[in-house]
Amino acid sequence: MAAKSQICSVWLGSETGILKGVSLTKKQAFNFCEMSCMSRDQEVCVMAWGDPHESEVLVGSVNGTVKTFSTDKGIFTATRECGDPSQGRFTGLAVTDSSMITCVESGLLKVWKEGSTETAEVNVGNGVCRMQQNQSQRHRVATGGKENPLKVWDLERPDKPIFTAKNVAHDWLDMRVPVWVRDIGFIPDSDKIVTCTGHHQVCVYDPSTPQRRPVLEAQFGEYPLTALSLPASQGTVVVGNSHGELAILDLRKGLVCGCLKGLAGAVRGLQCHPSLPLVASCGLDRFLRVHSLEDRSLQHKVYLKSRLNCVLLSSRELESSNADVSGDVEEVKAEEEEDEVWDTMETVTEKSKKRAAQKDKATATGVDGEKKRKLIKKKVM
Amino acid sequence: MDSNEATTSESVSKKKGKTKKVKRKVKSDEAPVQEMEQAEGEETEKKSESGPCFPPTFSVSEIKNKQRRHSMFLKLKEEKRKAPPKEVPKTIENQRIYDETTVNPEDEEVAFDEGTDEFSAYFNRLTNPKVLITTSDRPRGRTVRFCEQLATVIPHAHVYYRRGLALKRVIPQCVSRGFTYLMVINEDRKVPNGLVLCHLPDGPTAHFKVSNVRLRKEMKRRGKDPTEHVPEVILNNFTTRLGHSIGRMFAALFPHDPQFVGRQVATFHNQRDFIFFRFHRYIFKNEKKVGIQELGPRFTLKLRSLQKGTFDSKFGEYEWVHKRHEMDSSRRKFHL
């Protein structure tokens, strides 16, 4: 079990409550679930890394429990009751230095401190769809939902949000544009926040400016956007909608750069790799797909038998690319040696011609050689 | 004659080569080989010798030597007897690309998934099916008759006139009245062309394209009208995970215990992603022979999308959507 979990580079949570680990290099998928207690209320809603070293995965279920899974040991190490199903499902899970932050659909955001049972509570409004943590400033979280605009909270001063977004202006019919924030992303190295809505809009907000309305608004498709992720390269965002359409949008202009093909069902989980140009997507069609962001091609496709809710990519993908890099280094060295050898020789071009000539002869003999091989075969017959 | 000499000399050298090469092949190959040499190159000759087939102009009767001719004839007979068995013709179903989502019957995870999904209430015998059949607004004659005939085929089915009502408002009312299925037949230009099948408490919604509808009047050699007995259900060839979901959807339309007295059977046969519906009455003449009469309407369905949750085409999440350019690129890949 430990060996299996140590090689997994992608972690997924399914609707049946099973935590799945996939190793893309070895092309294997493993199920990690507690013995004999598979039930639908164990359905995984949210997943998060338990620590910066990515050795623990926190799994939040529908019944209100948050389980800790250790990737080194390969077993669930702890379970914590963090609310009850009457409050709604988990919409966000995050970890700061010494505490865990959970948010449920009814708007109750709780900060659970390690070791003690006291919690700090914040009410973020009803109908929350997503709560996301700022990776560079871990005490800041953003929440948003259906008719619940984007709000950024500082957990050290939890009484009022530090930023509340304002809705866009009325549309061309002078009607109020409905608000439905489905997923949130913090743009690294800046204060900006990207959201995707159920009304197929992608909005970028900048709290550092006095403007509370979105700085940029882009539209994609006709179906609700369900998931969003920011790749390592700046300036773009990957979004997925409920029809299985994945698109890369440019955040400078608000235009679609390209679409990633292959998905047949709604996108439930989307994550870009922290350093490589890869994006992992999972959804209701029971497949995990890894696309490359540069040429938009499908790199890996894995069938996992249950509908998938969330995906977590570890930085461990670097293992496979490390092997390739070392191979390249060897080849480069070999080439350098060859170059030196060639440089010491006097007439480089003639030798290459001779080599070409030899190659031609080789091909000519090759044909005869094949004939000879045929003859030999017949003799054997 | 020069050419002949040349050929004879070549043939001599060739013969030596041949005797070393092929001891089984009869030396009587010489005569036709000489003719062939001049016409074709070395390579083709090699090809003709390397394969088991003789050059096309050759026939056993041309060999002058009686003993050699006889041995050749016997060899030919032997080969015909040992001929390979009849080849199985390649069909698209044979060449179907293996689908990795094909369900393995012993798979625990899939069994658990199916045991706890939206149809588990039906398959655990907790609910009985009750179907509401309706159409799009203002249906014309053919669709109306189709709905009536469907209601005779599916037990506990009720046909209601649509009256331009919104489906999202119809659904809560159906749930409160205890319906388990909502079936909406869409009509275009006086012909039914679409079917929305919505499993009611909170179940998946499937949208099908309907084609080739034949009403009872148009059936040839049909039997009398179906009776009120509960028919048996046959589901053929739903192998993949998606196919399983759709198959269970069809199975849950009919009550659990078929009344074998009625001798009626409804078949949903999946082939190449098209689902063929037929309704028959059967009678066993003896243990091995069955006679069947087709009753009831017949139609063909093709799945367009499967949506999780009740009907909500704008904001619902789709489990499977048919994307023509991505999914129909290969003629041998099927999804159901």
Euclidean distance between termini CA atoms of chain B: 71 Å
The largest pleated sheet of chain B is described as: 11 strands, mixed
Q: Calculate the terminal CA-CA distance of chain A, rounded to whole Å.
A: 54 Å
Oligomer: heterodimer
Give average pLDDT of chain B, whole number: 85
Portion in strands of chain B: 15-25%
Low-confidence stretches of chain B: 1-31, 35-49
The helix count of chain A comes to 3
Report the total helices of chain B: 10
SS-based class of chain B: alpha+beta
Count of individual beta strands of chain A: 28
The number of distinct β-strands of chain B equals 11
Sheet bearing the most strands of chain A, described?
4 strands, antiparallel
Structure description:
The complex is a heterodimer of chains A (381) and B (336). Chain A is α+β, with helices and mostly antiparallel strands. Helix content of chain A is 17%, strand content 41%. Chain A has helices spanning 2-7, 318-344, 348-380, and strands at 10-14, 19-23, 28-32, 44-49, 56-61, 65-70, 75-81, 90-95, 99-104, 108-113, 119-123, 128-133, 140-145, 148-154, 163-164, 181-186, 193-197, 201-205, 216-219, 225-229, 236-241, 246-250, 256-260, 267-272, 278-283, 287-292, 298-303, 308-313. In chain A, strand 21 (236-241) and strand 22 (246-250) form a beta hairpin. Chain A starts with a helix and ends with a helix. Residues 321-331 and 362-370 of chain A have low confidence and may be disordered. In chain B, strands 1, 2, 3, 4, 5, 6, 7, 8, 9, 10 and 11 form an eleven-stranded mixed sheet that branches. Chain B contains ten helices and eleven strands. Chain B has 336 residues and is of the alpha+beta class. In chain B, strand 3 and strand 4 (191-199) form a beta hairpin. The chains are: A alpha+beta (381), B alpha+beta (336). The A-B interface holds A 15-16, 18, 31, 38-40, 198, 223-224, 226, 242-244, 261-262, 264-266, 268, 284-286, 303, 305-307, 371, 374-375, 378-379, 381 and B 17, 20-22, 24, 42, 46, 49-50, 100-101, 107, 109-110, 112-113, 116, 241, 308, 314-321, 323, 326-327.
